[in-house]
Amino acid sequence: MNNYLLAAATLTTAFALSATAPKVMWLDTMHDFGAFNEELGLVQCTFKAINAGDEPLVVLSARANCGCTRPKYTTEAIAPGDTLTLAVAYDATGRPGRFEKKVYVNTNDGQRSTLRVCGTVIGASNSLQGRYPVEAGMARLNTTVMPFGEITRGHTAGNVLRGYNNTSDTIRPQLGSVPSYINAIVQPAAVPPGEQFVISATAASSKTPEWGWVTDSLTFRADPRSNVTVPISTVLIVREDFSTLTPEQLARAPKAELSTRMIDLRRVRRTDKPSEHTFTITNNGEEPLMIRRVYTPDNAVSLRLSSDKVKPGQKATVTVRVDPSKIGESGLLNARITVITNDPEHTQALVRVVGQP
Question: What is the pTM of this model?
Answer without folding.
Answer: 0.70
